[in-house]
Amino acid sequence: MSELQEPLLTSALRNRTKSVHGKLDEHLMGLGLFSDKEKYKQFLTIQYYIHLDADHLYSNSQLAAMIPNLKLRNRFNKLKEDMADLNVPTPAPIHTPVITNTSSAIGTLYVVEGSKLGAKYLLHSVGTIGLSDQYGARHLGADDEGRGVSWRSFQAAIDTAPIDISVAVHAAEQAFNRVFTHVHNVTR
């Protein structure tokens, strides 16, 4: 697809990562990570690594100038509270990518912020094992402004930012592939 056919970054990101995103969703759901608390603890560990990878982006002043409420969007502390609720130890340290290119950062944030949309369904699933956005699954809860409003404001911000679409798409693909790596390493 040419850049002219996809003038909006979010359209390009959605269309060009649809395959890897679908495979990841299917793989995660096939692992049964939401069927009981012990398996869910593995999910929290996977989430820990995903959010650790992106944590530094939420305090980037250049990105904060583009994306409304960037610091407030970060779910890493809520995730750590969820881990504490279920006595999940802090996972072993790993090498995390340091992303300094703005277009790459936006591609990575697209993956992390976009996961909040699917989190609505995961939150419903973990309700069957006694978890909620108040206990054990805070990080799956909606932002204060609501999922839809939060996502639309994120989209509007990145769609109007001066971003290299191909670099952002490549970074999003890398982020999805890194999630696959985290899933493999935690669930093997």
Provide a brief overview of the structure.
The protein has 188 residues and is mainly α. Helices cover 64% and strands 0% of the residues.
Total strand segments: 0
Q: Which H/E pattern describes the elements?
A: HHHHHHHH
Model regions low in confidence, pLDDT < 50 over at least 5 residues: 1-5
- Please compute the radius of gyration using only Cα atoms: 16 Å
For the biggest sheet, the summary is: none
Strand content: under 5%
The amount of helix comes to: 55-70%
Q: Number of helix segments?
A: 8
Specify the overall morphology: globular
This entry's quaternary arrangement is: single chain
End-to-end separation: 37 Å
From the helix content, strand content and strand pairing, which structural class follows?
Answer: mainly alpha
Q: What would the average pLDDT be, to the nearest integer?
A: 94
Description:
Helix content is 64%, strand content 0%. The N terminus is likely disordered. It starts with 8 loop residues before the first helix and ends with a helix. Helix 2 runs antiparallel to helix 6 and helix 6 packs antiparallel against helix 7. It is mainly alpha-helical.
